[in-house]
Amino acid sequence: MSYAYQPVTFSKVMLTLDGSGVSRQAAPQAVAIANRFGGRLILYSVIHNPHSVVSHLPLPSTDVDALGAGIDRRLHAEAERIETVLRSLVEELGMPPARVDVVVEAHTDAAESITAYAADNEVDLIVMATHGRSGLGRTLRGSVAESVLRQAHCPVMLIRATEVKM
Description:
It is built from seven helices and five strands, in the order βααβααβαβααβ.
């Protein structure tokens, strides 16, 4: 069996950011790859959406609706705040703004949101920092990076980040 060589290109590089300094440590690699291939960089962030939890609360429907409306307002405000932060990051990265997309989505599962967006938008490479949790920390919080690695339709580059001291 022979395999034909096909050059790899990364025309859409997705950098996942969770708002932490740790996640930003993957930015230099994502930018370098996007620049090397003349591709687009997608700065992608997920906001946790608690709507599914609220719908299962034992409350009257009017209370659930009011709670849901409050959550929607909070999610919208948080999305605007994060989008502003990511747009300011574009300047720091040194890439032409015309080649950078900023996407903020609300979802109950970050890994599912990342992989679905990547598949739906034909992303060629997902770049993300890994916190390197192990043991109890990984068991309690799970590993978004590990889930993305298992679910993604495209290559995933994991950057081992160092802990950022505040």
